[in-house]
Amino acid sequence: MATETHEAAGAAAESVGMPQLDFSTFPNQIFWLVVTLVVIYFVLSRIALPRIEGILAERTGAITNDVAKAEELRAQAVAAEEAYNQALADARAEAQRIAAEARAEIQADLDKAIAKADEEISAKAAESEKAIAEIRAGAVDSIRAVANDTAAEIISAMGGKADADAVTGAVENQMKG
Amino acid sequence: MATEAHSEAGSLAFHPMDQFIVKPLFGDGAVAWYTPTNVTLWLGISILAIIAILVLTTSKRAMIPSRGQSIAELAYGFVYKMVEDVTGKDGIKYFPYIMTLFMFIVAANFLGLLPMSFTTTSHIAVTAVMGFGVFLAVTILGFVKNGASFLGLFWVSSAPLPLRPVLALIELISYFVRPVSHSIRLAGNMMAGHAVLKVFAGFAQVASIAPIAIIGVMAVYGLEVLVSFIQAYVFTILTCVYLKDALHPHH
User: Fold this and answer.
1) What is this model's ipTM?
2) pLDDT of residue B4 exceeding 80
3) Which residue from B17, B62, B73 is facing A15, i.e. has the nearest CB?
4) What ranges do the domains of chain A cover?
5) Smallest CA–CA separation between B75 and chain A, in Å?
């Protein structure tokens, strides 16, 4: 029994010992590892890596192209907007010019009409003044005649003899006063 | 009672390390250097997996990528950016070598997670070849590119003069430890994870703790999925860092 356990333990110890440190398998592992690494290196450097590099470069190129195209379209949109704004500003300026012209024309017509009206008014005023002056002159003469007559009548009525020249001079004096 | 317990314990004698044993595919003889073994089989499967991921998926060269092609492009972009960011523009020409390492480690790690599979990257022989390969390549490249001034890597010119010899010694030691840590990190992670999976799976034989063991297996498996990727990433980025040191040895 004891020997059996001992033997079992021995076997267990043997199998539990690290296979990693079994140097007799090293040449085998190293040989196959080197073969493997060489194969992987050639597969990667000849096929896989250039292919993936190509795919990534192609994609980067496509993205760059698309971005450039988008940039171009954006620039076009900006230019179109500018042209639109320009046209809008032009139209606005044109409208303002037309409005100013119309206003100036109306103003000119108006000025002409006002001048004409002024002229007519002043002509009419002058005419009226002349008429008034005539009337006023007529009135002064009438007053003088009436005053001479009246003075002569009053003098004769009071029994005097009217000296025509004296009366006229007196009336002239009074009228000046 | 005691015998019963003993017999139960006997049936529970599981062998978490058996999965790592290298055996010939055909027959039962000794393992010579050319013998096709389970290592050979799984290395071959990893080649096929890489061809499937990177070559077959991209065969259509679609402008709008399919799912498979996206994976190939993502893998390419991931490693390419890593090389570019870490080593700089002049490291790009070593990109195919680094991509080879990354794809192999990723494929081998994930294939190793399949039940009944063999994890080639859990073997120190495999990772040491890669680790020392990187170390030798980088060292030779450093001397070829920079001549003797590559030794400036060990002479920290920004440190005070009296400290420099000490730092040079430390830098020199750490430089020679690089390949060891580089390879043991990967092999150790893969081996430990798979061994733990096997241990949990072994406990699942006992009915009373089976549920816990199975949940444990699931949790560890999830962790291992992460570790598989992270270790491939770590191995690759460290390779890039070493490459950067070789190309630009001055601090």
Assistant:
1) 0.86
2) no
3) B17
4) 27-176
5) 10
